[in-house]
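It is worth pausing here to work through a concrete case rather than discussing structure prediction in the abstract. The textbook approach is simple: state the sequence, then state the predicted structure, then interpret. We follow exactly that order.
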Amino acid sequence: MGSFHRRPTGLAQYDSAGAFVARYRVGAELPAALNRAGRRHRGDSRGPELWIGTSGEGLLVFDGRAFRQIRPDEARFRKITALLPADTGRI
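Step two, the predicted structure:
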């Protein structure tokens, strides 16, 4: 999956050698409320995932190929300020 760098306009992805792979833009591939809370996580998934909290749009999960969004129905639960994995592997 390489590494990600937060930019004001979104995220930039680089491979393990440091070469640019892709750019994901806020308001296009990403929700407009992107936040800086992020964490690599394995949990129940088959491989590593990047989990990204947003400032009002819930949680984004990137599996190396695509993003999926977990967006609670209630707006008050959509603002993610931190991510912390439990010993069980859950976030």
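Step three, interpretation. The chain has a mean pLDDT of 82. The CA atoms of residues 10 and 25 lie 4 Å apart.
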